[in-house]
Amino acid sequence: MTDTVSIDHVSVHFEQGTVTALDDVSFEIGRGGFLAILGPSGCGKSTLLRVVADLLDPSQGEVSLFGDPPAMARQRRDIGFVFQDAALLPWRTARENVDLPLEVGNGRELAKGGPSATDLLDLVGLGKWADSFPHQLSGGMRQRVSIARALVTAPKILLMDEPFGALDEITRDRLNEELLRIWRETQTTILFVTHSIQEALYLGQQVLVLASHPGRVREMVTPDLPQERALDVRETEGFVRQAAHLRAVLETC
Amino acid sequence: MRREHTLPAVALTSILALWGLAVYVLDVPEYIVPSPLHVARTFVRDFGVIARNLVPTAVESLLGFTIGNLASIALATIFVHQKTVEQAFFPLAIIVRSIPIVAVAPILVLMLGNDMTPKVVIAGLICFFPTLVNMVKGLSSVNPQALELMKVLSASKTEIFFKLRLYNSLPYLFAALKIAASASVIGAIVGEWIGSTEGIGALIIQATYNFDTGLLYAAITAACIFSVGFTLVITAIERRVVKWSPEIG
Q1: ipTM score assigned to the predicted complex
Q2: Where are the domains of chain B?
Q3: Does domain B43-241 have CATH number 3.40.309.10?
């Protein structure tokens, strides 16, 4: 229990119960795991992340982050969140953006011993751009800064809401590869929402397929791929076969 | 000199030359329209009188500008944190804004007497509404994901205000302040039109009654120079403060 992120019979209703965004969703993922959450639009992927991040209260069910309720984990800065839009503050340099979580509340105290902004910008390959403002950076670079910002409190769990959805494919591929490296180096547990089959299969140690209207669990898949994956794994026969399977599952969603 | 500076200078000189030429060719009497040269000569000759009258106008507009804008920033801050107050008063503010302040000026002079107070109040009122509207927009139009980020970080309302909303509002604020700078000068002059004995507004009225068009135009020129200078100062401050938004400036 204390070594897993567990979502237990979680339902979310909106508008006085007339709209069901999530219907009885349950799953578990172990510490240090990488779960890709895949589904069509309207399947409540983003709602699910918001419940885990304590941005939204579930109507029913419980969420436990390594034994703690989300509110407690949030206050302890155990949660990092990466949005689809990098959501950098345009008046702050890259370094100042990464430092923001430390400046809020007692963030600096809670993150003591954690990585510095400089280390993290190096980790995401932006060491040279630390003093640049967001408008001087490309879309991919901005998203790297936002990943560094999410990691500055050394979170136990990193929630990513279609972070590469707005990027071009070349940038997206490169960031996918880097994210796996970052995940291995930081050993953070990651929940990664996407609507790309390729991305879900390439990144996820497990892939959770959600169906839409209402959002519910369709299938939990454990891809049969090597732990260390380079981008060209996507051209192997095994990958293509499993992608085809996921596509077939999605068509029934 | 860069092209964007030389072109307006050329345009201004041409207009002045055309004006002088028209007055000369059409033989317009000086008490109807003076020539630019006559205005310039009067400006130099009566510089003492003009400067003495510019001082109260400048003080009134600066005071009105400061008070009016501070009040609207404060009210916008309350609006953003107390939705009920905003819902009750913001539509009202929009209605009050559509009352022409110039038409209210005589009432204010009646109510507040004939010293500096009504002029400062009029200048302040003119600044108040544009800044209020812009400030409310600037404080509330924050990136929703940035707001969610602050919630993930368990930020307090004060932290959200000082780290997110206030910075977000600065481009909106300066856009309003640039308008308010020249508007406050208009407010002060309108206030001085009603029974004042000093100030650019009073000088304008006196010069008009005396058919002293040279002085009239010179007084207007002085108000114009002050107003442009005021706006330029605000623009210079904006450039120093709002460094992050390349589309502004």
Answers
A1: 0.90
A2: 1-33, 43-241
A3: no
